[in-house]
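Students often ask why we bother encoding 3D structure as a string. The short answer is that it lets us treat folding as translation between two languages. Here is a chain of 397 residues written in the first language.
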Amino acid sequence: MKTIPITVDTGTAYGRPPPQHNAALTEVGAGTPMGELLRRYWHPVGLAADAGAVPRQLRVLGEDLILFRDGAGRPGLVHPRCAHRGSSLYYGKVEERGIRCCYHGWLFDVQGHCLEQPCEPQGGERARGKVRQPWYPVEERYGLVWAYLGPPDRKPVLPRYDALETLDEGEFLEADDHSIGGGGPPVIPCNWLQHYDNLVDPFHVVILHASFSGTQFVEQMALMPQVSWETTALGVKTVSLRQLPDGNTLHRVSEAAVPTLRVIPSPRIGRYGRVESIGWVLPMDDTHFRIYVVGRVKEAGELVRMRSRLNGKLWEELSEAEHQAYPGDYEAQVSQGAIAAHSEEHLATSDRGIVMLRRFLQRQLDAVAAGQDPAGVSRDPEAPPVVFEAGNYLRQP
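And here it is in the second language, the structure alphabet:
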């Protein structure tokens, strides 16, 4: 009898080790490497209109916070649990001088000072100075409320950006909280790095946003680009060259910058020139983020009209079958998991920008761990606006 040799396929999924994520780059809670790096910068935590007479719950870098604006117009950002007995200030009342707890009426100003303890003798005059509600510094700029959650002695100045400081005739600034660029709802349920990596990945535009799901932007963006990357003082710059049918070249520059900036020119290319808007990716916690965008516009609502359409519809208008048939950034990034399994990746030459960006972030983690300032931190109130090269430019032969 003839013996038939048995071959064993060792390439099955059996026995795979548990997938692992890069905790240093992804986890943002207090005390983690990335959490401490991000706490060396200012972050947008809401639109200016979000700070009002009704307390608003926020989640920022893994911390639950309350945003409000007192009767004198000053925004405040405090921890939710009242320093007295722990009742949530979400149920508090905003007054002229601050926010008052619903339980026993303790009143705190925007910097957490206890101003009144109405159930105590003389309104708590003797002891109230010893109590302070945990709080964070806030500032307003570009229609956004910004917060600094880091060590007080390392607080930098809130940067200005040339793209938002120098307006062309007829332009004004508009701020938006729809997570434009995220491809889905305002709050996106996955780790922030999955989106940040995407900023230096121009090749996915040709596949995901053109050939796979149909042309989502304009025909020029469906052309395969010639790509190069460069490390800058603030992150990684991507240069994509597309040869157009008329002989001209679309010279497209985009940038990923610290702490979480997406400096991406419009993929719809309605006009050429410098970048029209800047976005900030806010890690709410390890598995959720949202994006705040400020741009130069000539008509109100211009920013939100930039939202992607798939099969002619906005993301929330699609059926489940359409989400599967016409995936966008949301589907591609969220389907990687709540936190992508980096141990399972097989990076290729087209991922060079991602490798460069992760290495840049690691250098900033190392700087903070060594007691140094990371890139982009300045304490000079006269520092000039930050200038980016990003934009869509048309080059003739």
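Translate back mentally: The two ends are 74 Å apart (CA to CA). Keep this in mind for the problem set.
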